[in-house]
Amino acid sequence: MATVMAATAAERAVLEEEFRWLLHAEVHAVLRQLQDILKEASLRFTLPGSGSEGLAKQENFILGSCGTDQVKGVLTLQGDALSQADVNLKMPRSNQLLHLAFREDKQWKLQQIQDARNHVSQAIYLLTHRDESYQFKTGAEVLKLMDAVMLQLTRARNRLTTPATLTLPEIAASGLTRMFAPTLPSDLLVNVYINLNKLCLTVYQLHTLQPNSTKNFRPAGGAVLHSPGAMFEWGSQRLEVCHVHKVECVIPWLNDALVYFTVSLQLCQQLKDKISVFSSYWSYRPF
Amino acid sequence: MRTSLQVVALWGKKAPPHSISAIMITDDQQTIVTGGQEGQLCLWNLSPELQISAKELLFGHSAAVTCLARASDFSKQPYVVSAAENGEMCVWNVTSGQCVQQATLPYGHTAICYYHCSSRMTGDGWLLCCGEYQDVLVIDAETLAVVHSFSSSQSPDWVTCMCIMHSVRVQEDSLLAVTVTGDLKVWDLSSSINSIQEKRDVYEKESKSLDSTNCQTIRFCTYTERLLLVVFSRCWKVYDYCDLSLLWTEASNGGRLFAGGEVLAAHRVLVWTEDGHSYIYQLLNSGLAKSSSPADGRLLRETVSPHLLCSASVEENQSLPFVMGYMNERKEPFYKVLFSGDVSGRITLWHIPDVPVTKFDGSPREIPITTTWTLQDNFDRHQMVSQSILDHFSGFGDEGAAEAVTASEYVPRLDKLICGCADGTIFITQALNAAQAGLLDLGSVPRDSSPHKVLKGHQQSVTSLLYPHGLSSKSDQSWLVSGDRSSCVILWDIFTEEALHKFFLEAGPVMTLLMSPENFRLKDDQMVCCVCSDHSVALLHLEQKRPLLRARKHLFPVTTIKWHPVENFLIVGCADDSAYIWEIETGTLERHETGERARVILNCCDGSRLLKPEPVLAAALETREHGSEGRGPSGCPSPGPGACPALRVEAPWQAVAASSSPRPFNLLPVKTRWSHVGFHVLLFDLETLTERLLPAAPGDADPTGSFHGRDLLRRARSTVGKRAVPTRRSRAAWGPASPELPSVGLAQGDSAATVLEESDGVKWQKKRKSSKRTPPQLSGRVNASLTLDTAKLFLSCLLPWGVDRELDSLCVRHLNISRLQGPVSLGLASNEDHFSLMLPGGDLCSTGLKAEYSGVNLFSRKVLDLSNKYTATLPSHLGISRGLENDCDSWQESNTITYLLSRLFLVTKLVNMPLELACKVDRSFKVESIHKVKSPVNDILPISSFYSHLRNGRTGSPPPERDLSLVKLISCWRDQSVQVTEAIQAVLLAEVEQHLKTLRKAPADSCHVCLGQRDSRDQVRPTAEVGQVEDLQPESLRSASPVYPAVSPGEQDSNSETANFWDSADVPGRCVLEVSESPGQPRQHSWIAKMCSCRVC
């Protein structure tokens, strides 16, 4: 081993001292910073039940698209749940105005937000009992902790950045379609999801394919946003999407949360890198 | 992977790391199962005296194990389910170490409960799972398919813990679950079985907020059928289940976080913390608090208050996170056991007294630790048996201890093993020699005389190695590239042993070396890509000895490298899902993308051939990051987001299976995550080995025999291939989804017949699989002596050295194979990605071997009995004629070895079949037209004669019935869940004994083993007793009976069974009919089959 060490004994002593400082001081500083950031992030998600006010406050979001104004929607977000929705749809042909609203007694959980929130609180929980009173003994211990935290944070971020790809029958079967009063017309499908920092609402208008239709029936696969012409089978009917309306609105606090995720992931990685630097000096010991 | 692949592990002196993240004890209290953050499972034997010893390491998960649970009724099937962070689930048979079922779901589970209601459920039961998703998933325990879910109408959220409440009073099972936000939810279980099976939504019966978060455990007290213990991380609470009223809250003191708890008895609870402390409380019933309540006008409140009786804590390292569990067994031979496992891999066990009491002065009593054990303890105790691959080089360093191997690479083409060491030297040695030196007691041969080369040039430990020619045939054969900790990359000429060029990258340890793909070339040259620990990537041009590109902008570890073949782009994917596109010629960063666009960019290049698919590199990087390495697999399942595969051994496995010309011998290095500890695994492909030996062995003296043998091997394969057709049809008849269960009303005999037929079908399918592979062209360059050496090494590993000293010396003398240094660690592969490796000393624990056999390479006690049974079935008079002459020459020696190997190959084939089927649900079947099926009689006869020809190539063919009885015997072992290794060793022992019988000085010695083992007989099952009867038959009687080797009643019975077996197989049409009528799962039959065969044989 002696030959492996490029450094002299004095140099090695300095290195060890430095490493001890890293484990005892620097790691805790980073962890505290990390915890602060994540707490800030989790505040954005306003855990229901944890706040003194009991219920999370309601926020209204007006959804629109820059192109047409065929669909307008006002969605009310309460924590991770949609509590109210008012969607106005201008039917393309008849120019009729269709109004859709949520039932009073029901809420629709946005699972992406819920999952992201849970992942963040798991990450915070991992960090809670690693405060100043805790002494890290090895670098590997820090690396493992960072790996676990980063896993949760990556998942939290991915939940927001990657909406579920659903097939049309899955959208039709989802509980969201049953949320409306009066009930959703059979030629309409609605889907709500989060994409990055945006709350998105898609309305699909459908028409039935005649059994003797010459069109080649090919059911569409899963997608975040289906395009007109996508076909599927629902019940005994074959349906085709004829119009797709997508409206969206930026949720500012989701934007914040995503930034916090990115920053804390970088912090974690930097800490891992710092530890790894020392690993190259003594390869044998579980540094 | 082929069933004929046999695995031998060469552990080093250090145990692989196993950071326990989940722990459980099986219901029979004989096995502790732990899951590690590295992704492996470890099976520990728990003796009746509560002594622990590690038995086996199970490989299969590529991410940390999150939870373990029983997966079937343990008295019927010893199955345990494990779930990993990335959604992988495996069902393991913990007695054999095989993976029975596996699935990857898009969900990560944190807890699993097995539920079976015998009165209302027909299938195998459910696994109720919760984790990083809403509510509770119901998964079929056998197929691991999602059945449905228990959903909640009010505030659905992730469930953190749950328990099944079985109340005798109410006659209804309920599922209690607590969500992340602290809501207790109750679902009816037994009355909603039908709804769930019909996929109707089942909503919770009750939902109540418990006003605390981070719930760890919920337990229902079955003794009082009233109390509910709920453990949160900051406090634990007791509720009255009747009205869910809170009876007591006990907060944690001293900042300790609770991790779990269990109800010990009526009004007695056990609670443990994350740092390994546990407390036993008596819940004092304070009765109705008369004084307080009536005045308030409230209802009378009953409360309980806890009184600390006993406590227990681990000895050291109290800061490490622990996972604990408690096993409450009231039956006599079992104990009440509290157990814990920690991140360092230590298991601690406390025996909880039946009635815990305080000290006389009322202060809590400390419960002493009963046992504690780590993997390393196993390695220390049995160090003799675990030989690392390079230990014999220790002669170079005078310090005594060999430098640790930090990187190694096996070059199959040259059969060279290249090892980079911690001191910077690189050894190149003949792999087979290294393995022999590691395993065998070579005696007089000087140990360090094996030819090897030493490359000296690195100043620091070698971190990665690359042999370009192995990846691209256009590279120079002599080149070797190595990288070290100080960021130095050296290009070597391995033949002249000189360093051709040194590159200094100055970018931290070189973690991975990769070759550019063959179709990608810059000015017609290939280059090497180095990934360094500062997340930079460097491209080196080997031919011109100059660096081409330094890509240094990456913020996160590099996970993917892709080459754009047309535009000379290098696309680098990082762990944060960003993509960097570098132009190779100019060295400029062309684009940097994140998020969705990065994903598209990384995916779009899938068409171009990658050097290594991304998970590989991810794995390699993850493991190398901390100075260790793992050779990546090809085409392994992609790990979940952020999940880092811990250990990738399946890769080469697949590579071995996929390589066009299979090699009889392979050696692969294995490294684990977060550590430098590595070990090597030897792979013997029995099939290829046999194939290569067959033409070589008998030589000119008996050309017909050899031709015959080979021809028959092929014929057997092709004929069984055709048999697959009816089975395919029968499969189709089962329907793709949820096969119905077998009708229970079948008469016993009938069902037995069906079972046999099924296993029959199973067998043919498996055979067919192997037949799909065309026999490899034997290249003229095959080194016959190398093959023979490999075969000898393999036999050495299998022979039960030390059981019979005389036999040992006969083997050494006449077969010219060497003695082992100690027992070997064998592996058992279940399929491509799942296998188990025995740990040093693992052979001693579970199988009931006594101390007298320590140091004996005997896999289990069963082997001797099996071997005796096998010998009894062998036609004994033939054994004499086959015996070797005293002046045994090399020709006969190789002939014998060939014969032994072909025998073993058959045994593996026979024993492996049902196991393979279980894992081959999605195996696509080659469609063959039905009219191709020849008369089934023709199919069977060649096989039976094939057996006999293999065995009696030189002595003429005996009646096939004899071999049929052997086949039957082995098939019977399979049904009794005899492990492959046990079967192989038993057969080998019996065959070797037969062969060498004539060489013994006194014929009486042949009974030596039998007599020696008599005392153990009473431990064996009824089958063995029947076998014993068989053994006791005088040999003359056996040989006098021409058709049946033995005439014991049991034997008669089983022979009639055999007749049935073959009969039914004779009629393919009927076979289909039968199978489609009772399409049930073959595994479910297996225990019935076991019972049946026990009865008859």
UniProtKB/TrEMBL annotation, chain A:
Where, subcellularly, is it found?
Cytoplasmic vesicle, Secretory vesicle, Synaptic vesicle
Residues of the signal peptide: none
Instruction: Supply the InterPro entries for this chain.
Output: RAVE2/Rogdi
Output a single Gene Ontology CC term carried by this record: RAVE complex
What domain of life? Answer: Eukaryota
The main place the protein resides is cytoplasm
Q: One GO biological process from the UniProt record?
A: hemopoiesis
Family membership, please give it.
Belongs to the rogdi family.
Q: What is this protein called?
A: Protein rogdi homolog
Per the UniProt entry, what species is this protein from, by scientific name? Octodon degus
Upper lineage ranks? Answer: Eukaryota, Metazoa, Chordata, Craniata, Vertebrata
Gene name tied to this protein: Rogdi
TrEMBL record, chain B:
Question: WD repeats: which residues?
Answer: 58-102, 551-592
Q: SMART domains from the xrefs?
A: WD40 (SM00320)
Superkingdom per UniProt: Eukaryota
Q: Name one GO biological process term.
A: protein localization to plasma membrane
State if Repeat is listed as a keyword. yes
What keywords are annotated for this sequence in UniProt? Answer: Phosphoprotein, Repeat, WD repeat
PROSITE patterns tied to this protein: WD_REPEATS_1, WD_REPEATS_2, WD_REPEATS_REGION
Q: What Gene Ontology cellular component terms go with this record?
A: cytoplasm
Q: Where is the composition biased (Polar residues)?
A: 1051-1060
Q: Which residues form the WDR72-like alpha-solenoid domain?
A: 863-1079
Q: What is the protein name for this chain?
A: WD repeat-containing protein 72 isoform X1
* Organism annotation: Octodon degus (Degu)
Q: What is the lineage of its organism?
A: Eukaryota, Metazoa, Chordata, Craniata, Vertebrata
